[in-house]
Design a protein that fits this description.
Helix content: 25-40%
Shape: globular
CATH class: Alpha Beta
CATH architecture: 3-Layer(aba) Sandwich
Number of helices: 6
Mean pLDDT: 89
CATH superfamily: Glycerol-3-phosphate (1)-acyltransferase
Order of helices and strands: HEHEHEHEHEEH
Low-confidence stretches: 125-129
Largest sheet: 6 strands, mixed
Strand content: 5-15%
Strand order of the largest sheet: 3-2-4-1-5-6
Length: 215
């Protein structure tokens, strides 16, 4: 894997958000009801993941910069790795606890930044399976998790399509989930309980978003 080399200043990311990002938001008519629920300070945004466009459009539409965890093998490609470095992303290894990724995410959260996580990991139409990373990081750093339901991105490149389409995309933002509410049992039990609620709240927002775009 190419070693990540994030720049000291992310001027390029700001330029991309102000140009390419705004263009993408306009093309897909991205709406984000409840965007004001994303709090100031450190927070985790957690959403469903059904398309490669999910992180791109959420990154473009969010009023605050989002630092996404991305699978580490993407850094095997020099150009892609460079792009991820310069656009606020950082790698995470799948299949085991990645201490470096957890440390990087914690550092960002403690600095008051937003970290983006898709609890299901890779792209799934059914978000039944989940990982506990979002809940673990929230508890470790005392920050809320903001559930987001995304709908419409699955229509950008449906099965059999040769060229992308430009459907309306809706990202419904739910109320932040405070990790301090989960007090029963040991850390493992608390993380599991919070993860269940995160996934339930994401599913609620997905249903709201689907009603807007139409199934």
């Amino acid at each position: 894997m190419r070693e990540p080399h994030p720049p000291k200043r992310f001027w390029f990311a700001h330029v991309v958000r102000a140009t390419v990002g705004k263009t993408l938001v306009a093309l897909f008519r991205v709406a984000m009801p409840g965007a004001e629920k994303i709090p100031a300070g450190g927070a985790i945004v957690a959403g469903n993941h059904v398309s490669y466009a999910d992180p791109m459009l959420l990154w473009s539409r969010s009023r605050r910069p989002v630092h996404f965890m991305a699978r580490s093998d993407l850094w095997d490609h020099s150009f892609i790795g460079w792009g991820l470095d310069t656009l606020w992303s950082f790698p995470v290894k799948r299949g085991a606890a990645d201490r470096d990724a957890l440390a990087q995410a914690s550092s960002l959260l403690q600095a008051g930044e937003i970290v983006g996580i898709f609890p299901a990991g890779s792209r799934h139409a059914d978000e039944g399976e989940s990982h506990g990373g979002a809940a673990f990081l929230a508890m470790r750093n005392g920050v809320p998790v903001v559930p987001i339901g995304i709908a419409g991105t699955e229509r950008i490149m449906p099965k059999g399509a040769r060229v992308p389409r430009f459907p309306k995309v809706v990202m419904f933002v739910g109320d932040p989930i405070d990790p301090a509410r989960f007090t029963e049992g040991g850390r493992k039990q608390r993380v599991e309980a919070m993860t269940v609620e995160i996934m339930e709240r994401i599913a609620e927002q997905v249903e709201k978003a689907r009603k807007v775009v139409g199934r």
